[in-house]
Amino acid sequence: MSETNPKLRAELEGIPTYKPGKPAAAGGPAAYKLSSNENPYPPLPGVLESVTAAAESFNRYPDMACTGLMNELSDRFGVPLSHLATGTGSVGVAQQLIQATAGPGDEVVYAWRSFEAYPIITQISGATSVRVPLTPGDVHDLDAMAAAITDRTRLVFVCNPNNPTGTVVRREELERFLDRVPADCLVVLDEAYREFIRDPEVPDGVELYRERPNVCVLRTFSKAYGLAGLRVGFAIAHEPVAAALRKTAVPFGVSQLAQEAAIASLRAEDELLGRVGSLVCERTRVSDALRAQGWTVPESQANFVWLRLGERTVDFAAACEQAGVVVRPFAGEGVRVTIGEAEANDIFLKVTEAFHKEL
Ligand SMILES: *Cc1c(COP(=O)(O)O)cnc(C)c1O
């Protein structure tokens, strides 16, 4: 066999691997998965039926233009079809946005710690990551982010609420930031957890984008809508950006099953709002209980909470697993714990109680 390997792009060296949330191992002690911010509920009413019907024709390629879903989204958000683009989850769309805007020599600015896909998709494009530390309260430091923008910056991510801290940026500071960003630099408002926000001061990105051609809003069906396994997300942006997304899309990336499931989910709005409401109640219950135990937790507007555990992070995650819940540790920093079923949340709170007593 030849000693020579195919030449691969140098940028691929050292790309961090995406660490998926650990599943709850069959037969193991952990019965609940609180590690990927998934929705604990089964599919919304009508979704399974739509998917099953679509499954009868998966010998055919899906509708590449996602016509039905695009029409539904256009009505729902009051945006023209030309301002919409769908993709294989909003991570897929985020990757397309970077491919469309940044290559070697260009910079992509984002907060850190934030969503772990950002460094990966930036490096794949050959662009350079510029990470701006969160404030001591674990919130985006928008002034520092604005100051980090140079004439090489092509894209800035604002993750609102932020994964993994659950913290938000509010209207006034976000608008001030957007006013400072040069018009030729794209700002991506990643709103994967939008449905869980209850703070009225957090602006809806879809309102901000209307007057700002350099703002793109990312949404997903993976979290509140409970379709993580089907891979469908979308962007709302002005025409040149949305058109670039259609150019960079993998042909037929969004399956017909995903398209039909997304449409049926949008039509089950009442049920969706009820479920999201219950999860938000659980978020309040869990956050209050943690504070009563003595923990300092940032105010979460998402479907997870963040516990800064530092050096004890890995031990804490192991204790959770032993007790029956899998959480998402970021070694040396903290754990992100999804709000799940009440029983799962109770198990988590038992572990935090025992851990806090040992502090
Ligand atoms: C989960 C998540 C997404 C969405 O992922 P999909 O690819 O749509 O499943 C995007 N951004 C953030 C910050 C997330 O946490």
From TrEMBL:
User: Disordered: where is this region?
Assistant: 1-31
Is Ion transport among the key words of this record? no
Q: Where is the composition biased (Low complexity)?
A: 18-31
The regions listed as transmembrane in this protein's record are none
Q: Which Pfam families match?
A: Aminotran_1_2 (PF00155)
Top EC group: transferase
Molecular functions per Gene Ontology: aromatic-amino-acid transaminase activity; histidinol-phosphate transaminase activity; pyridoxal phosphate binding
Cofactor(s) needed: pyridoxal 5'-phosphate
Q: Which residues carry this modification: N6-(pyridoxal phosphate)lysine?
A: K223
EC numbers = 2.6.1.57
Which Gene Ontology BP terms does the record give? L-histidine biosynthetic process
InterPro entries, A to Z: Aminotrans_II_pyridoxalP_BS (IPR001917), Aminotransferase_I/II_large (IPR004839), ArAT (IPR024892), HisP_aminotrans (IPR005861), HistidinolP_aminotransfase (IPR050106), PyrdxlP-dep_Trfase (IPR015424), PyrdxlP-dep_Trfase_major (IPR015421), PyrdxlP-dep_Trfase_small (IPR015422)
Give the highest taxon in the source lineage: Bacteria
The reaction(s) annotated as catalysed by this protein in its Swiss-Prot or TrEMBL entry are:
an aromatic L-alpha-amino acid + 2-oxoglutarate = an aromatic oxo-acid + L-glutamate
Basic and acidic residues composition bias: residue spans: 1-12
Residue ranges occupied by any Aminotransferase class I/classII large domain in the UniProt entry: 33-349
Alphabetically sorted, this entry's keywords are: Aminotransferase, Pyridoxal phosphate, Transferase
Tell me which Gene3D superfamilies the record gives. Aspartate Aminotransferase, domain 1 (3.90.1150.10), Type I PLP-dependent aspartate aminotransferase-like (Major domain) (3.40.640.10)
Do you know which PANTHER family this protein is assigned to?
HISTIDINOL-PHOSPHATE AMINOTRANSFERASE (PTHR43643:SF3), HISTIDINOL-PHOSPHATE AMINOTRANSFERASE 2 (PTHR43643)
Q: Which NCBIfam families match?
A: hisC (TIGR01141), PRK03321.1 (NF002878)
Q: What does this protein do?
A: Aminotransferase that catalyzes the conversion of aromatic amino acids and 2-oxoglutarate into corresponding aromatic oxo acids and L-glutamate.
Give the similarity note. Belongs to the class-II pyridoxal-phosphate-dependent aminotransferase family.
Its subunit composition reads: Homodimer.
Q: What is this protein called?
A: Aromatic amino acid aminotransferase
Which species is the source of this protein? Answer: Streptomyces longwoodensis
What would be the name of the gene that encodes this protein? Answer: pat
